[in-house]
Each structure stands twice: as structure tokens, then as C-alpha cells.
Task: structure prediction
Amino acid sequence: MTTDFEPQIVGFLCRWCSYPGADLAGSSRIIYPPSLRVIRVPCSGRVDPLFVLKAFQEGADGVMVLGCHPGDCHYMEGNYHVRRRYSLMHRLLDYIGIEEGRLLVDWVSASEGRRFAEVAREFTAQVQALGPWGGKRIDS
Amino acid sequence: MIAEIRAKARELLENGQVRCFIGYEEGTRGRVRPAFVYEPQDVDRLIWDERCTHNLAVYLHQFQHPLKRGEEPPRVGILVKPCDSRSLNVLLHEKQIERERLYVIGLTCNGVRVNGQPQERCQRCSERVPLVYNLVMGDVPKTIGREDYADVARLERMSPAERLAFWTQEFDRCIRCYACRQACPACYCFECVAEQLDPPWMGIAMDLSQKQFFHVMRAYHLAGRCSGCGACEEACPMEIPLSLLNRKIAKEVEALFEYRAGQDVETPPPLATFKKEEELPL
Amino acid sequence: MNATTRESLLAWLDGLSKSMTLIAPQAVEEQICYRPIAESSEIVLDFGRTDLPAKEYFLPSTHVLFSIERGDKGVSIEEPSLERERVVFGLRPCDARALRVLDALFLEEEPVDPYYAERREKTTLIGLACREMSPECFCTSLGLAPDDASDVDLMLTEVDGGYAVQVVTEKGRVLLGDLIMEEWEGTLPQVTGREELPILEAEAWPQHFNHAYWAHLADRCLSCRLCTYLCPTCRCFDVRDYETPNRDIERVCAWDSCLAEGYRRIAGGHDPRPTKMERLRNRFYCKFCYYPKDFGPIACVGCGRCIAKCPVNVDIAEVLESVAAL
Amino acid sequence: MAWATRKDWGNPYRPYLGTLVGVRDLATDIKMFQVELDDAEARKDFAYRPGQFAFVSAFGVGEAPFGLTSTPLRGPVLEFAVNKVGTVTSALHGLGEGDTVGVRGPFGNWFPLDEMKGKNVILLGGGIGGAPLRPVIHTILDNRADYGKLAILWAARSPSLLVFTEEFDDWRAAPHTELHLTVDRGDETWTDNVGLITELLDQVAPSPENAVTVTCGPPIMIKFTLLTLEKLGFTPEQMIVTLEAKMKCGMGKCGRCNLGEKYVCTDGPVFSYVEVARFLESF
Result:
């Protein structure tokens, strides 16, 4: 695949765990690809699957929804709902042609700076392999 | 069967148990259409045969408000086939309608026909007796269908690029007339995402990405709520295979959460609840 | 009169599509719609009536009124324009008359709509007479005929061995160019009409405005937009701005429907037509009472598309008969 | 067409570009926008009369119709009173002086100021409904001798929603001019009338003798005001109203603002009660 393709990835990061995790990765100078556009949300449970669909429609090549590990949610059950919503949304998106590899839902705690960079790097490579999606492409 | 339906409807209207009886009547050009009978002497307009495909539960929303100001919301009689009864269960489960204001006549069903063609969804249908009713009519059909989601599987076997091409071509034909949404009993939002200005989810343009967003959004919003009644597909003027979308959701909801829409009014809906220890493929 | 064969007709159309955008009926899944054509083999010649009217090419479902560039020297407005001339082939007389109905509002009423005017002016219409009336058609009740050639530039009528060609306007004659034709003496086939529907004239409609019939009719209406989007003479539109990916702004004009819930709701919530009965009634009054009073022609051409596709059988022919009998 | 004050339309969907030369608060959630059209030619073309309206564009969101609250003879600056209720109005409220807006028009017919000459004029403004009446007041004050007594009845839901409060003193000071204020709900500083405009109308009880009334406000207010005027002996010819409706073009094309076969944008927005009574639909 063209390696010079710089994927645009939208990341919904929950402010209690994955956002501080990303901060930690930054402050401890861990390198991870710049393809991520971060949107801070109060909880991964706040991420309406329509946000993901809208992100793809507006031209994202990949979307990440990162929350606290199940059981650690600051609001107790946000990520439990995320599991249900996105296990379903994943299959629906794949069914209409947005490949499964373009959506990642994962858990990163505030102390896992290294793991965040790892997740970001892996997912960027995965999206890079899939090539550009660019929602508007569906129009051309 | 039609004689008993008419007799019961006349009785309900005469003793004032219902203000209006919703059924089917002969339309023009050999077509059948929903009928609204307010007077006992008009019950003879009611008919019942294989052409009665419409899901009448969609009309219950308009009877939630009093017909005249100051009156009680009207009590209504309604005919339901098994798939319509599932829609009714969804509406009852979501507290949209009070059960005691409905007199439900359930009709066993051997499958309906559109323009004389038997419907695939009926050949696959395993519930031939309605799930909710005050009174049930008709003998239980022997032939029971089996749900195998073959049509959905055919699409799943395609590659993502092929599926994208398939849906792009289908959504391209959509003219955003919203007949699918308006015919669907589960779509009763006061202001649909498609028309919301704040946040502006969608624009007014008739371009492909807007139409794709609308149909995928609507399919997702039917998770655990679509009773598979086929009203959307039969209303679509552009003959877009919408049930392929909704049945994929129904199949996944059943596989992931063992939940089928409209079975009862107690089991918590799949996306409104969770099990802490459940493992779900993300 | 002259006639041409099917082969030379298609060859001629291929020639046209080199310099103009050729729009003709094409099979799309199981439906027939007017679509831009790459080569004439894609054109469908034997069909009853297209599923969608040709309205899309004169009042597009979406078009940009202008775009606003916010440069450093402030704001500038750019208006788009049609690059290529176009030819619409296979237009049925009812769709052609529908354009004449829309002309009464968009061209003959001040101010002229420049977008519609440009599309009308840069398009040549080639009609194709109907062989017989589809079940839902009632164009003869509107003073139209299945072989009426008055609203097109060129009229083709299927005859044995090919198509009779009638030149109707100068614009059509110019387009003929090198179409191979030869003399043809035969008489055009007669299309059997249908007994006419009783249509009240505009002044007689107001008296039935508050009749209970409308509430009875609207009970089953789903309040969707299907009949207005399929209708060749419905012309309501919505206008809004949207930002393009490169941060310019486009003022987009798109179809709208008077049946849509909230069509008349103003910010703050007041809605003069809150119920679907009022909205459905307005559709029939607009066509048979308001439009004729305000702009002249009846805004219906009897194409029957709304009859064929309404999910709950709100049948305009039945409505006309019922209203006439009120 | 009644509104043919402008001859050459060119592209009637294309707004003139204008710059906001003044933005100030009139009342809670209501701002006064003063727009000067950039192009001199446009300023000349934009000859309007009191009662007409124009579409103001908040580029990026859309455009919406607003009654012109400025008076043509008092200068080239166009003034609009904008109540923040929807997407376009909220976008406008986000703009400041120096920003660019679009103005399209003028549309609609206008107040029959010539026929009103020599008569007593009664103006009934409900909330922001006072905006289209302001140019009538200014025209009368500028040509005071041409008109009889002027009674201004100004109402609002609460004192903070009364518009043009800073001009009340000029209006009171003008010869043969009375200003009556009322609010649905007063507050601790409010000393004037409390109650609906219809109650104020009964109290003021202007004489229908050689008089004409102009009413503008929320639809419910117009309906009841007209009933009260009828009770006070005013004939339909003496009752002028200016209506609002959802509009998308302003020139009868988009099919959006019809009341029966009348279009609010081209046959109105100014109607006499004679016409309103014959509308098939209520506004």
C-alpha cells in the first residue's frame, strides 16, 4: 500500500483515562504518529455511534473510541454501554462497506502512556494499510 | 373471518368502547389501504385478505392526543398481524401508548402478498400467531417458516469493497422522501436526526453521503426495535432493499444480545442495559 | 412528415451526445429514470412512464445558488452556470406539459428565476408519444393527449419500421442536423383516451375547504414527501448554507415538500399547518385552486406517478371525483 | 406585482453584500443590526418603503426574512431588529460591527401611508412586532402635519422585552401623540399597565372615527387585537396587519408562505382585515 498516505484518524478520548493516558505518552516523549485528531469527551459512553458515522462522512479514514477499562469508568457504566453499542456498530459499518479495521474501540487507563502510543501506532498502520476512506470519496 | 371482524368492530363502536377502529379497506385499482372506521354502520368497509400488508401500528401515534380539546385521548381498536403485534409490543415497551386504550384484534397470518407476489419475509416467518391481543381470530397455520438470514449472509460474503459498491448504488437511488421512516411504527421521534438543525447532523442536499448517513443512522436506531414488518421496503418508491439493512441489525442484536424486537414488554432493550461480565467482540 | 429508423435514430443520438449532455430514459434496477447517457444503447425506448419525472434536470433535487469565498480581501460571491447544452430525449407529453406549468411561475412571473431559465433555454426537448395510457394515467382529463406534441421541440411517434419525426420548434429543427430520414405518408396511430375525470374549476374549491372529507382522507396519509418528489409540477424548495471542505460556503437549494411535518413551523414553534390533514389538503388546493388562480395553469398533468407509488393509496383521481361530488 | 419597487433583479437569489455598521441590544435576546450596503449601485437599487422586508444572510447558516425597521428617508443605513430564536438569528447574534452580511430584497408590499394621511393612526405592536411599525412612527413624526392623532400601544411579555425603549420619550414628546405601554408580567421596577394589549386597547378605547389601525405581533396577539378592534367599532378596512411566515425566497417561487392562494411574501406582508377575513387558511 502507499506508505506515504497519511491517514486522518479521529480519536474520541475519555477525559478520565485515555486522554490523560495520551498526555502521559506526550509528556514522557513517547513517539506516536501525528495522524490522530483528538476529541476529548467526558466519557466513552458519551460517544454516540452517529459521531463515528459523521466522522467517516466528513472524511476520516479511521476512528478510535478509547475509554477506561471496564470497571474503572468514572461514571460507573459508560464503557459497559460502549461495548454493546460498538460491537453492533462495528458490524453495521463493515456491512455497508466501511471496513472493520477502520474503527477501533479499546481501553487505555491514565497510567498507560506507553500503551496509548502503542495503540495509536498500530491503528495508524492498520488504517494506512487499508488506504484512504475519505467519506466524500463515496460521492465521486 | 371478515364477518367476525366486522361484527366485533360494530360492537366496539356501538358500545363506545372505541372511538375509531383501524383496519383495512378496498382501495382503488385493486389495492388495499388502511381504513379508519368511526361509525358502526361503516364497518362493512373493513376487509381482510392477503393484500393487507400495512403495519397499522404506525397510526397509533396520531391517536395519542384527544380528538377534541379537553377530551380524553380516544380509545382505539386495531387489527394486528403477528409482525404488527411485535411493533405494538415495541411501542408498549417504550411507553408510547397505554395498553388499556387499545382493543387489539390479533389475526393469525399465513403470509401476505404485494401485487400478488408472496413476500419473502413471510416465507421466513416463524410466528404465525400475534403476541399481543384482546381477541385472536383465525386458525393456526401449519406451514411455519424458518429464519436463516440467507439474504443477509449473501451480502456478508461479499468483500467490503463490493458491499460498499452495492450500498452506494442502492442509496444513490434514494430521493429522501422519508416514506420508509413515516411508514415505520418505531420511528416516532418528534424531530428526526434528519431534520435537526442543532446539531446539524445532516444537510438538505440530495447527495450520496447524506443519504448513506440517513439510512445507516435509521438502521442503527432500529436496533432491537425493528419487528421485520417490511413496511419500509414496501413504502419505498425507489424499491431500495431496506430490509437487508434492518435484518442485518436484527441478526446481530440476536447474535450478540439474544434479544428479538417486540417479544415482550419486560426484557430490558439491548442497548439500554448491559451485563458487567459479558465479553463482546469489539 | 418524415420518419427515421431506430438505428439511425440511435446513431444520431450518439452524435448529439458528443457535444451535448444526452439525458434519456435508462433502466436503473427494475425502474426507468431519466439519466445522462454515455451511449445510446443504454436508452430504453419501450416503457410506459418513467418512475421519476424529468423535473430533476430543470428544478434539480439539489443545486448551488452561489458560493461565497471568504478571501483576505473580504467576501466574494461566485455564481455557477451550466457548461454544456443538453438534450432530453424520450419526454412524455405529460412531463413536457409539466415544464410548461412550471414556466408559468418561474419564467412568466416577475422576477424570472435565472437558474430555471438557463436550464430551460439550454435544453432541447425531444418528445416520445405514448403508445397507450398506463393504468394510472389521466392526462386526457387535463386537456392533454398521449400524443400531444405542443410542448416539445421535436416529437417522435413510434410507427412500423421506426419513428415518425415531427419538427415543432425552430430549436428542434436546428437539432435535426444529419438525422437520416425519408418521406413518410402513413397516419400517426391513434391512442385511445379515457373517460375524463370531473375536475372542479378553481373557484369551486374554496367552498369545500372545511369539509370533513379532508380529515377522512388524511387519516391514512403517512405525511411523507413521496408524492411531491415524484410529481413533475411540485416545485417547493428549501435553501440553506453549508461549508465546503475547503472552507468556502455554498448556498444550497434542495427539494422540499409541503407535506413534511414542520414545513410551515417558524422559529419559536408557531405552525399554521400543524396537522397532516391541513398539509395534505394544501397539496390538492395548491394544484387545483391556488396555482390556477395565481399563475394560470392547473398544476397537475395527470401522469399518475403519485397514484402508482403512494404507499397508502391516496389516489388523486379518486380525490378529484370525491371533491367534485361533495 | 405590488412590490415592484425594484426593477432590474438580475439574479434575485443573490444578496447584496453589506457591512454591519452598528449592533446594539434592544431587549433581551433582541438586537438591532444596522447594515450599510457596500456597493453604491446597490444602495440606489434598494429603494424600499415602510412595511417591506428583506432577507438577511448569516453566511454559513442561511438567510431569513426580517421587517425593515429603518425609515427610508432617514438615511441609507438599513436597520433590522432580530429576535434570537432560530439558527440564522443565533448566527446573526454572533456577529459584530464590521462583519459582512448579505441583504436580499426589498420584498413584499408596504403600509398604505398615503391613504393614512389625514387620519388618526393607532399602532399596536406586540413584542418584536413593534419593529415594522417603527418606520411608520418615524414617517408620521417627520410629516406630523399630514396625519391626525397618533396612538402607539406597545406591549411585551415582560418589561425587558419592550423594544425601542430609548425612543419612547421622543414619541411621547411628539405633538398629538400618546404612548401606552403594557406588559403581561411586570417586575419590581415596572409602574405602567400590566395586562394584555387587548385590555389596554379597551382601556384606551380610541375612537374609530376617521381612524386607521396597524397591528403587528405574534399571531395570537393579532387575532385577539382584531376582535377587540371590531368590538370597538372599527371596520375591516380600518384594520391593517403585517404578517410573518416561514419564507425561503420572498418572491412567490418556493411555495412556502401561502395562506390559501395569497402569498405573504408577494401579496403581503401587509394586508387589510378585509383580505385576511377572506383567507382560506388562518395565519
User: Anything to note?
Assistant: The radius of gyration of chain A is 14 Å. DSSP finds four helices and four strands in chain A. The mean pLDDT of chain A is 91.
